[in-house]
Amino acid sequence: AGIGHEYEIYSGTHYDRLFEKLTISLKFLSDALGD
Would you call 34 exposed, middle or buried from its count of C-beta atoms within 10 A (0-12, 13-18, 19+)? Predict the structure, then answer.
């Protein structure tokens, strides 16, 4: 609870978004290489 808990939630969503961007980038890259 408290500040630590809020930080956990923040970093959790931060990494999820980062992973999502990475996945999209890899998909775009493999599509480009596929052509």
Answer: exposed
What size, in residues, is the chain?
A: 35
Tokens of 8: 């956990």
User: Is the model more confident about 32 or about 14?
Assistant: 32
Q: Cα separation of 13 and 21, whole Å?
A: 12
In whole angstroms, how far apart are CA 33 and each of 2, 21, 28? 47, 18, 9
Q: Is the pTM of this model over 0.70?
A: no
